[in-house]
Task: inverse folding
């Protein structure tokens, strides 16, 4: 068991006029090697929640365990936790600052106390993982395209060798191909390195395609925690929370409402295509 | 001639070193000649770095042509004396609402533009009123922008542009940072402004679903215009779009895949309704008595 949250409450600005109850009694467990999607409207508590998972925010109430130890215990090494649980913020390329790509990616591991050679090795590994070869190492990060910058920023977190990688909307602002490339790369990290992934996304289509399990946040509470197929069956409730289902869910639900005996748990194009062809006897 | 016209437009980003020597020239717009009709809803697609945003910035003279000409209602944007008029005619809305909102309360933010143009106070309040109503944010007039959702903030930003009474609004990925509801809100608002107020809209986006309702879709690649047509014409060409790093709406893709597998469907199906009109009669034939066609079978015409 990698991460376990018990009764997490978080209140911003407690005791002030701006007090806001951002997380309410959140319980969840994320196992090693899972690929989890986290969805919710803007302000639902997603970002607050992920900042708890690597100890950047401390719960007002509740317990958070990483590999069995309560991270709020006195003397718990939060610095080490942040190496294990890597967090890629929204628009991470805004945090690039070094003179070239390679130096930027070395920053994290150096900060962890690794020597120059070790840091360089980590950086090389991380850049390979995100699909950037040596021709990029000496380039200024500011000259790269949006998608390339984003990869450099993700490599910067990967270079710290995390066991869990949390990404806050890693595809925002990218073109469709760029979106697919980043997500495929993340999927590969999950499959080849058994990395635990938490993907925060506003794209229901992406979530349906990539993750094994979805957590849905609404007004600071966890309202669903299930497979994509199960969660998207509740598309009407999701809509009332400012979310939606993948377009394909609407296709199968509309067919069903007209009496077509179709499986309504279908969420991807490939599944819908095969099912429609099967039903039509093609 | 349309509201926006460009002739052989070229724009180069020029990088210089500390001694002002030219280090690198990157051509961002390469020989673009376009004529955009007043009152239309025009979408521009293209991958990151294809030149869309650079093109948008030409339309209210944030950037000026390296070669060629841009006219906004007959005004040449490169002439300095036209600058204010050009900027009044085309308003811009950008990706990040937090970078565009400056007022402490909503009405103040919306009034900033006209105030800057020297509009008399009475008239400013009238415009603030109308603009906020036109984007459906009238009830938020006295609220703090900080407290709004992303979609609401973006609508306030659009109201701020509307208050300057533009002929044309250029929106550069206005929904990239929004959740599904926020995206819907913004796209709906923009369509309403286009339909009810006759504002010419230029929407730049990476979300193919937002484009299906446009009058015209322009695809850019490497600074050039590579496709130009109605959404149906554009989205019929699934493979070509993919070669430009783009995509089609999921419904269109599903129809395309079904067609590839031998189902006889028309090209360029854009909406759920169209797909249903084509699929339901087949299911009704296959499962007689089980599948109901609404409106007593709207198949055919």
Result:
């Amino acid at each position: 068991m990698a991460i376990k949250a018990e009764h997490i409450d978080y209140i911003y600005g407690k005791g002030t006029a701006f007090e806001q109850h951002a997380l309410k009694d959140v319980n969840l467990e994320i196992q090693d090697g899972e690929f989890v999607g986290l969805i919710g409207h803007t302000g639902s508590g997603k970002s607050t929640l992920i900042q708890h998972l690597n100890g950047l925010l401390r719960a007002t109430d509740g317990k958070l365990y990483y590999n069995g130890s309560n991270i709020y215990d006195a003397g718990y090494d939060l610095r080490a936790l942040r190496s294990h649980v890597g967090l890629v913020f929204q628009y991470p390329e805004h945090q690039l600052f070094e003179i070239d790509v390679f130096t930027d990616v070395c920053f994290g591991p150096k900060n962890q106390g690794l020597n120059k050679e070790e840091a360089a090795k980590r950086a090389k590994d991380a850049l390979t993982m995100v699909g950037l070869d040596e021709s990029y190492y000496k380039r200024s990060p500011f000259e790269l395209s949006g998608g390339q910058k984003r990869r450099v920023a993700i490599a910067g977190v990967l270079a710290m060798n995390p066991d869990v990688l949390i990404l806050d909307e890693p595809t925002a602002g990218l073109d469709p191909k760029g979106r697919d490339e980043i997500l495929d790369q993340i999927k590969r990290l999950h499959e080849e390195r058994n990395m635990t992934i938490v993907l925060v996304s506003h794209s229901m289509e992406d979530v349906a395609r990539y993750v094994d399990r979805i957590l849905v946040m609404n007004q600071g509470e966890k309202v669903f925690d299930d497979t994509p197929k199960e969660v998207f069956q509740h598309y009407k409730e999701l809509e009332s929370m400012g979310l939606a289902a993948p377009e394909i869910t609407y296709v199968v639900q509309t067919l069903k409402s007209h009496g077509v005996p179709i499986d309504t748990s279908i969420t991807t194009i490939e599944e819908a295509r095969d099912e429609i062809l099967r039903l039509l006897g093609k | 001639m349309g509201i926006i016209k460009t002739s052989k437009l070229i724009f180069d980003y020029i990088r210089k070193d500390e001694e002002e020597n030219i280090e690198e020239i990157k051509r961002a717009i390469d020989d673009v000649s376009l004529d955009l009709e007043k009152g239309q809803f025009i979408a521009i697609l293209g991958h990151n770095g294809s030149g869309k945003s650079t093109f948008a910035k030409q339309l209210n003279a944030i950037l000026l042509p390296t070669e060629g000409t841009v006219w906004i209602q007959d005004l040449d944007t490169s002439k300095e004396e036209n600058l204010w008029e050009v900027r009044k005619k085309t308003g811009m809305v950008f990706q990040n609402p937090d970078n565009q909102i400056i007022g402490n309360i909503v009405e103040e933010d919306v009034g900033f533009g006209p105030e800057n143009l020297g509009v008399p106070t009475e008239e400013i309040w009238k415009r603030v009123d109308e603009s906020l109503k036109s984007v459906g944010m009238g009830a938020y007039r006295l609220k703090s922008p900080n407290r709004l959702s992303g979609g609401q903030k973006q609508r306030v930003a659009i109201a701020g542009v509307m208050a300057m009474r533009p002929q044309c609004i250029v929106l550069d990925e206005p929904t990239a940072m929004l959740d599904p509801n926020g995206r819907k809100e913004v796209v709906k608002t923009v369509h309403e402004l286009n339909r009810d107020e006759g504002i010419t809209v230029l929407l730049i986006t990476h979300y193919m679903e937002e484009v299906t309702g446009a009058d015209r879709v322009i695809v850019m690649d490497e600074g050039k215009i590579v496709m130009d047509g109605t959404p149906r014409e554009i989205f019929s060409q699934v493979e070509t779009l993919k070669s430009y790093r783009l995509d089609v709406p999921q419904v269109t893709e599903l129809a395309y895949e079904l067609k590839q597998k031998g189902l006889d469907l028309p090209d360029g199906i854009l909406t759920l309704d169209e797909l249903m009109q084509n699929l339901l009669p087949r299911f009704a034939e296959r499962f007689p008595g089980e599948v109901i066609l609404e409106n007593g079978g709207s198949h055919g015409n």
Summary: Residues 4-229 of chain B form a domain with the Rossmann fold fold (CATH 3.40.50.300). Chain B touches chain A through 49 residues (CB under 8 Å).
